Amino acid sequence: MLQHVTGTLGIAAAAREARTAYERMETPDVTIDDVQAAAARIAPHIHRTPLVDSATLSRLTRTRLALKAENLQRTGAFKARGALNAVLKLTPEQRERGVITLSAGNHGQGLAYAAQLAGVRCVVFMPEHAVPTKVAAVRGYGAEARFAPSMETVLAFMEEYREAHGLHYVHPFGDPDIIAGQGTVGLEIVEDSPDVDTIAVCVGGGGLLAGIAVAAKALKPGVRVVGVEPEGAPVVTRSLIAGYPVTIEKITTVADGLAAPFAAPTSQRLIERYVDDVVIVTDDEILEALRMILERTKMLVEPAGAAATAALLTDKAGAESGSRAVATLSGGNVDFDKLKGLL
Questions:
Q1: Residue range(s) of every CATH 3.40.50.1100 domain in the chain
Q2: Which among 124, 141, 259, 274 is placed 20 to 30 Å from 103, CA to CA?
Q3: Rounded to an integer, what distance in angstroms lies between the CA atom of residue 255 and that of residue 286?
Q4: Exactly one of 79, 103, 193, 217 is catalytic; which is it?
Q5: How does strand 144-148 pair with strand 168-169?
Q6: Is 193 in the active site?
């Protein structure tokens, strides 16, 4: 009993120390100017993706719903935006060293694509169970794919390799340049739908959510920005509750693209400052949204890309009846054999 109490007190003390350190930490800010500069920088290399209206999904969500189709983006996900911005801002010394990252797949593809354009070496660490098509795409863009036993262990494997080879680490969601690049999604949403009332955003580590919130709140302060996490990987929610970025010991979700094992200081600070709410959806709710998107809009998304729509279909996003809502379709890189089983 004494050991249990002592252990509990030790954990509590460690949590207090972590929170104090986070509060004292000077983290880089990301502003609307950074997002607008990123938009100009990456424009030649990305698609300006459409907002797709759906009468059926609007009726089911009781909103005027549009879907931001980042599943149609280069590399099949919004991740290309942030990766391009980060790579195009590398110093000559960083370019010479090459870049390294960790990813379930989409960020890896985005960074590989950006690195190929810039002629930079790229190494991507992924879990061994990564979707095969995502692994193939990383390699197809010329990057080296390396593996760890699980998503929870991939950071440690990547760090060991990075230290040994001197590569420059591009954080998948906590790098300010990544966040600014992802924020260009928010710019486009507000420009194309200035009457938007609620933006529901799929959340893994929170880079897309942070970037969209920075951009959208600057252009339209009254817009509601809501993050949507899977219940099996709620790292942003747990970090908000704890008061500092936490790490998840076990991840279990069908939405592999949202399976971030840890949060990051910069993205968390921005989420705390600008985001109105973060909600959680189940795997079943995600898969039902995926089916509805495929059936009603004829667009294919991966489970991660359906999470924001799931929050609107279940009323968890809190959008008012009759209001203008936008949901991000964050990616479409789904393995077809896996898709058959999901559907």
A1: 32-77+177-342, 80-174
A2: 274
A3: 8
A4: 79
A5: unpaired
A6: no
Q: What percent of the chain has pLDDT over 70?
A: 96
Render pLDDT for 278-287 as a digit per residue (tens, 0 to 9).
999 999 999 9
Report the length, in residues, of the chain: 343
**pTM (predicted TM-score):** 0.93
- Spot the catalytic one: 54, 103, 239, 330: 330
The domain 80-174 having CATH identifier 3.40.50.720: the answer here is: no
Residues 314-322 have a mean pLDDT of 98
Q: What is the pLDDT of residue 10?
A: 60
Measure CA of the first residue to CA of the last residue in the chain; give whole Å: 48
Tell me the fold of 32-77+177-342.
Answer: Rossmann fold (3.40.50)
298 is catalytic: no
CA 242 to mean position of chain CA atoms: 20
Average pLDDT over residues 9-17: 67
Please tell me the distance from the alpha carbon of residue 343 to that of residue 338, in angstroms, as a whole number: 9
Identify the three-state secondary structure at position 57.
helix
